[in-house]
Structure formats: structure tokens, C-alpha cells
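Notebook p. 47: complex prediction with magnesium ion.
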Amino acid sequence: MAVQQQINKFIHGIGASPGIVIGKAYMVERFKVRLPQKRILSEQVKGEVERFLKVIQQSRDQLAEIKEKILDPEVRKHAFILDVHLMILNDQMLIQDTVDTIRKKKVNAEWALDLTVEKLDAAFKAIEDEYLRERRSDLHYVSARIFRNLLGKKHDDITKIKGKVVIVAHDLSPADTLQMNLKYVAGFITDIGGKVSHTAILSRSLGIPAVVGLEVATSLVNGGDLLVIDGETGEVAINPTEEVSQSFLERKRRVKTMEREILKYASLPAETRDGVRIRLQANIEMVEEIASVKTHGAEGIGLYRTEILYLNRKDLPTEEEHYQTYRRLAESIFPASATIRTLDIGGDKFLPDYSKSNEMNPAMGLRAIRFSIKETDIFKAQLRGILRASAHGKLKILFPMISGIEEVRQAKAILEEVKKGLAKARIFFDRGIEIGAMIEIPSASVTVDLLSKEVDFFSIGTNDLIQYALAIDRTNEHVSYLYEPLHPAILRIIRGVVQSAHQARIPVAICGEMAAEPAYALILLGLGLNEFSMNPVAIPKVKKILRMARFEETRSLVEELFQFPTASEIECYVQNWMAERFPGDFIKCNTEKFKA
Ligand code: PEP
Ligand code: MG
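Predicted complex, C-alpha cells below:
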């Protein structure tokens, strides 16, 4: 029952990382695929059981063949994993239980197997022994193979593919993305996810086009299909006609020309026409991105996300690894500074061993600074690494997900302890290193006056601030239409944060994705912010708009915005305002009533 081949079919999702690419589809189905759940008739039961047993045999044959083909003795050492998988495929409980369910409940094989796997998974989860508990992942690996075979999907081997592929997945964790050999990856498309999900952010940093939240990608696409994806508009064409491919390629050429044009702004100062200077910095997660930071004209690193150091491994990064990474960062960006955010695990970014599966609501769970304060050894290793590296350049420390003053105090107390230890051991570090708090939880945003007594700077994280203030899961494509950066509540919150910070004379920057949208950047400027950090690729276009604008007019614009009660009215008003001032770069909103 292969998925019917789609010809010249268009699907729409959320453009997560710009760029247009054409490539063959490569299915990654480590996460759950959409399984058809069908009731069957009594006379279909026999055939369904046979289909299931045939697929079990097919799966065994595939594994046996893979095992046989391993010639490298080093790789052969790991072949026992395949034996474990073969054992699971021979497990009578797995087979018999599924067959019984097909017979008794009269459901299709996919549904029956899913029920069996669920049962076995629960049994594995309850096992005390860690090694055996770990076998759950093998169970899922094997069942994914059976499901793929039942669905008639092809098992492509990424290393065998000539040219680049478009990865098609239900979902991808940052760890999945990084495990791939990125030189073969032209683009990503996923069923779920939003513009600020971590994978979207990561693909933007890597410059790999991506479309997320497509909902039906894994059910419509077959491995090997030709795909054209537009990471800007969110459009994906499956097996397009030659004419359609050409029109995408034509757009790609136009975008490239525009990008070259816009890159001219990278080296110019970010200054408005009435002389207000704005500091534009970059958000990155790998030291390798520094080259791009420089070509795009950033003045330092406003946010260095450190989660990647912890991903794709069983152990934790050592103090030495932290130190070496941050030292390279400090040296390569010097004389500019880099703000290192301590581990922001949880929510959309999780480590395998501290998996979100244990929490009902990971976005509000033991994450970020809460996790660091609890797991002090992990936290201290990172802080020691940062402090030691601070002797080699200009570093700052940023605490994520601060919800109140006590957390800042606890984090600072641990930092002081680490500093004392280093001083005692006569290890150099910057004793005056600045400490900042992310403002991304509503409770922090309304207590900036209190927090300002504890920190040297603030950084507003709108990706999470919008999520928590509007109760909109930033990774959920079903509510992405409600993820509104110009919601009156968000504008009021940002205004309040900026006013309180200014009153306390504490610098406040913004490092959420919002700053990377030119129109939003002007609003943020009008709200009183003049330090923005964003993905480096966005810097030239933001510089361009800032250089075309006047600070005074952005202030008046913001005043006007506070008169509107809804985000859509504000959005439309801003669009018209931009189109009137910069007609070559923006088009009018089609609702007449919100005219500027
Ligand atoms: C934010 O929340 O706005 C932010 C910059 O951090 P992250 O996207 O890593 O959560
Ligand atoms: Mg955040």
C-alpha cells in the first residue's frame, strides 16, 4: 500500500529558513509517521494478517542484508545492534499480540502494531534496569521499519544519494539535524513545528532552506520524489512539471540578485537618517558561524546559544570543552564582545537523558536556569569554562528563562562560588564579567525594576515572551496564526520593560527573532530599543531599513499603534506605513480601513 505518487502537487507550510532548492525527497521517520487507522471486515482479516507477516519477513530480510553488507571490521563490532533488532523482529509477543489484535478488533495491521508497540513501550518504561530500559529505542527503531514497510515507503540510504536531498520528516529535533551529514542536505520539510521552533532557528543559522508545519508532508511525499521548496513563502511542490520548476528557479535567481544587493549594507553603519546609532549583533550557536557574522556586518555576538554542546552525545561536555569552545569564540570575535547564554535546555530543546517525555508540559517544566540551579555540577562546569575563557576576550554571561529575582540570586551565588574557586586556584578570569537576564517570561517582564538591582543588562527574548504571554506554543503549527509579535499585549510588555530598564539605567537589548523583521525592527526602535541581536543573515536587510528611517518618525508610529485594539489592525497599519515610506520594498495591506 504505497502512498499514491503525487504529480505537480502543492502544499503550504510555514517558511522557516529562506532559500529555494530542488532535490529528491529523503524520508526520515524516526518520529512517528501518520499511521492510517482503518477498521476491516471479517473477510479481510486473513489477508491483513498475511500482509503483516509478510512485512515482518521483509523487515528481517532487510536487516540480514544490511548486516551481511558490513565489511569494515570496525563497523562490524557494532553489528550486534542488528542482532538485537532481529531478535525483536522474532519476538512472539510482538507478532502474536499484533495478529490477535487484527483478528479480535478487526483493525488494519498498522493500527494493531501501534497498539502492541504502545503496550511494549509501557512495559519497557517500567523496567528498573537502565540498560533494558534503553532498549525502548530499539523497539521504536524496529517498529518504524515495519511501519515503513507496511506503508510501502522506501528506505533510502542518504550516503548513496547523488547530489543533495530534501529531508522529509514528521519532526526533527536539533539532535537529529546535527546527526545528519549536512553536506547532503539541500533543505528540510516537516509536518509540525513553527517559525521559532529550535530546528527552524538552527536551519536559518546553517543557511539551509526549510519549510515546517506542513502537516501532510510525510503522508504525501514518497522517498525519491522530486521536491521544490521555498523556505521564504512556505510553498512546496511535489514532483513539479518542468514549467513549475523553472518558475521557482527564476524566483531563486531574482532572490539571489536581491541578496547580493542587500549585502552592500553589511559594511555600512546601522544609523537612522536623523543620526541615531543602533548596535546590531548576531545570534549564533556554533563558533563556525563567525565568518558569516563578519560578512553580514554584525558588531559582536548578542546571543550565543550553548545547547549544541550538549547534544548528540551520551556524556556531558567537560569544563575543558566549554573552555576551549568559548575561548575560540572570544578570540575570533575580539575586539567585539560575545554574550554566552547558559544552558537553555527544555521546551523545544531537550537532551536525550533529561527527555521531555518525563514531563507533561516541558515548556513550563524543569528547564533552563531552573535546571542549572538544580544540577549544579553541570552548571558549574559551564560557568568555569566561560570564566576561564573570559581571560581571552570580552565575554558576558546571560541567564535564560529568569522568572524572578530569587533565581537570579541563586544563579549568581553559584557563579560567585565558581569565581572563588578559580581565584583560589590562581586561574585568570574577567572579575568584572557582566551578568544579564533574559526577559522572556511575563513575570520577569513586569518586575524589571526589581531585577535591575541584580544584573548588569537585560536581553528580551521575544520568541518565548510571545509564547508565554499569549499562551501560544511556539512549535505548534495549529496555533501559529495566533503567534502575533504585534499583539497589543506584546507591545505594552516591551514598552514597559524598556521604560523600567531605562529608569534603572540598565542596558536592554533584544535577541528574539522579531528584531530580524525590518518593519518590526523599526517598531522596536520606536519603543526605545537600540541594541538588536538576530540571525546574522538578517542583519543587512535590517541595516538597510534603519538607514532609510528617521528615529522620530518611528516614535510617532509607535504612538499611533497603541491606539489599535487588535494585532491584525496594527499589522495592517504598519504594512501601509512601510509601503508609503518605502514603496520599492513593501506592499500595502489590502484592507482599506487601516490606511496610514
Ligand atoms: C527567545 O526566547 O526569544 C530567545 C532568543 O531564545 P530561544 O529562541 O533560544 O528560546
Ligand atoms: Mg528563549
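Notes: The mean pLDDT is 88. Residues 196, 201, 303, 305, 344, 440, 461-464, 511-512 surround phosphoenolpyruvate (ligand 1) (CB under 6 Å).
Next step: compare against the earlier run before touching the bench.
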